[in-house]
Amino acid sequence: MTIGSAVRPDDPGWARVLRLARRRLESTGGDLAGALTVRDPTEAERKLIIGLTGAYRRPGVGSLTLPLQVLDASVRREFGQSLYERLIELGGPLRNRPSERTEEARARVDLLTDARAHGGPWASEEWFAAWLDTLAADGTITRLIRRRDGDILRQVGAVLTLLADSDAAGPTDPRRPAPPISLPVLAERATGDTKALSGTPAATLVLRALAARDGEPPPASASERRARWDAAGVILDDLASQVLVLGVRPARDHPVAGWLTEAADRAIPFRLTLHQLMLAPLLVTAPDVFVCENPAVLRAAVGEWTPGHPPLVCTEGVPSAAGHRLLAGVHGTVHWRGDFDWTGLRTTADAIGRHHARPWRMSAADYGRAIDAPGAETEALRGAPAESPWDPALAAALHERGRAVMEERIIPELLADLAAAATRPSDRAHRLRSDHPSPPAVD
Prior knowledge:
By secondary structure, the protein is an alpha/beta fold. 49% of the residues lie in helices and 9% in strands.
C-alpha cells in the first residue's frame, strides 16, 4: 500500500485527527517533530491512518500514533495546503500555549510587583504579602490576567490605602478613628466609580484582604461581608451597625442621651446604632468604661448592676463602626477585654492604638489561670497568630498551649472587677490592671 492510497479529502476520519493535530501543535508551539495519538480510533480513523502512513493497523487496537510530519505532507497532497493553513482555515489562528504561559508568568510577576508598589502603608505588612501569595496560589491573579482585569488589583490597593488613612489600624498608632465612610463614597474616592465595590470582584478582593489583616477566613455570606465592612469602618447600612451597652450616661442633652440615661437607671441593656451616634454624638465622662467581647458577660452583669457601676460596652466580636464611634466619645479610661484567642489579641492591640485602652485581665498570668482552672473549657486556636505588645508573654503562651479560652469562662472575675470599680475611688479605678490575681480590695 502506498502512502495516501486510501485517503480522500472528504474521508470521515479527518475530523478528529485534525482536532488532535491542532491541540498538539498549540501545546508545543507549532513543533512538527512529534506525533499525535488517536485513542480508541473509529474504523474510519483507523483506515485513514493506514492510508496516511502506509502501515497496516489491526482492528480493535487501543491507540494509533501519527507523525505530524507525515500528516503535514498528506494534508499538503490532499488539500493543497500546509497543516497549519488547513487548521487555520477550519478553526482560526493556532494558539502558542508555551509562549502564552511565558507571557502569563511574566504578567503575574508584573501584576504582583505593581500590587506591592500600590499597597500603601500595608505593603510592608506580613499579612499583605501573605494575601498576595494566596491570590497567586489559588489562581486569582491568573484569572485577572486572562480577563484583562489586572487594574482591579490597583483599585483594591487604592481602597486599602484609603482605609489605612482613615483607620488607626496599627496597634501603636495614637490617632483617633476617623468618621465612618459609606461604601459608595469609599468606592468613588478610590476608583472614581461609586459602584466599584458593590458586589464586584474588587469588593471581594478588598474583603479578602481585610479578613487576612484580621486573621479571619474570607467572608462567605452577606451577613459576614456586611460585618467585615463594618469592622473596617465602611458603612453599608448605618442602622445595621450597632453596639450593645449597659450603664452609659452621656453628658450631653439630647433624646439619645436621655434614652441611655433612663436605660442605665433601670439596668436595661441598650443597642445603639451608628445612625443614632451620627445624629446625636455622645460624650461619656465616666472615669472608667469597661469593654467586653461577649454578650454573655453583659447579660450576667445586668443582674448585679447598681447605679454606681461603670459603663459596660459589648463589642459582640470584632468592634463595629458604631462601637468605635461610641468609644471615640469617651473622656475617661477604656478598659478592654477580649477572648484569649488571636482575634482577641488583635482587637485589644487595635483598641490600645485607637482608644488608648488599657488591657483588662488580658495578661499571660490571666490566661494561665483561666486555662488551668478546674473544668476549664477550651478550644483549638484558629486563624493567623497575633502579637500582644502590651504583654508579649501572652502571645507566647497562646502559641505554646495552642488553646483558646473564651471570655465567658472568667465571668465571675469580670463581675467582681466591675463591682470593685463601682465602690472604690475613681483615682484607684484608673489604675486597674489586667494582671490582678483576684479582684481589688474594696475600700
